[in-house]
Amino acid sequence: MNLRQQTILQQVNDRKRVSVSELSQTTQVSEVTIRQDLNLLEKRGLLKRVHGSAVALESDDIDVRMMRHFSMKQKLANHAASLVNDGETIFIESGSSNALLAHQLAKRPGITLVTVSGYIARQLKDSACEVILLGGIYQKKSDSMVGPLTQLCLRHVNFSKAFIGIDGYQMDSGFTGRDMLRADVINSVLAKGAENIILADASKFGQVHQNLLTTDSVISRVITDNRLPACYQQQLAAQGIQVDILGE
Prior knowledge:
Elements: H1 3-15, E1 17-19, H2 20-27, H3 31-43, E2 47-50, E3 53-56, H4 62-66, H5 70-82, E4 89-92, H6 96-105, E5 112-115, H7 118-123, E6 130-133, E7 137-139, E8 144-146, H8 148-155, E9 161-164, E10 168-170, E11 174-177, H9 180-190, E12 195-199, E13 211-212, E14 219-225, H10 230-238, E15 242-246
Helix pairs in contact: 2-3, 5-6
């Protein structure tokens, strides 16, 4: 995927639907070139073409999700990386913001990184840090390990901080996930008693999914952006959760 195609995918994922003419103006190439790019991206399953426009897809593919609000996710990841001390062992769950965090930490040789994400492990194959990939059932759609074996592996590793991705948060339900098996793994991580940190852009707040994550009392901190509605920030703070808000 070239830089122009990455720009197209990011715009489509951020805005949900963008016309060919708008994409042509933004990227300063012809509409014919845009249509060729859209055909390629559609064949890869990264977006859907409709008459005169491109439409975003709901996807577990990390490359797709990373293009949504990319610059903000990069800032969240940079801030999260600043909280990690040299010599620490940390857990990073799967997800696009967490993948960007892993890239930042890869430059630091004194850190040990525990993950269930095959995507993250592959991205760090040439990194300076130590990487521990936990075993389990390989969930192809999310490129991560899930199931009882993964939870058993978690019992035998220790870490001081855990960075967790979420799919939704509502005031009455708390943090939720789309996938039951991934939610089970996250709950096993949260139960270990490390400093649990939610890393998620503000678009996740206001959404709700069927799989509940462990009660908010085990969450130490939430790192998100300044699109977070004040009501959510106030509720999280009232529960004793530190909320780090990053601006554009």
